[in-house]
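Bench notes, afternoon.
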Amino acid sequence: AVTIAFILLLQVLGLTLSLFVSMAAALWLMGVRRPGVLLGISFGVAAAGYLLFIAVLDAGFPHGVIEKLFS
């Protein structure tokens, strides 16, 4: 379910926000309930995804608000 949501959100929100939301949802489903852990890991994964796929590799992922803000 989280993977399908990620694919659908990717077109609307772009890579970075989709990764953030999907990672937070996946962690929640796995039982992580501490807000700091949820936000920290989700932010780290989203930031790494942005840096690798958007900033460094300039891959063809859809750009959302975050990607347009930093480009």
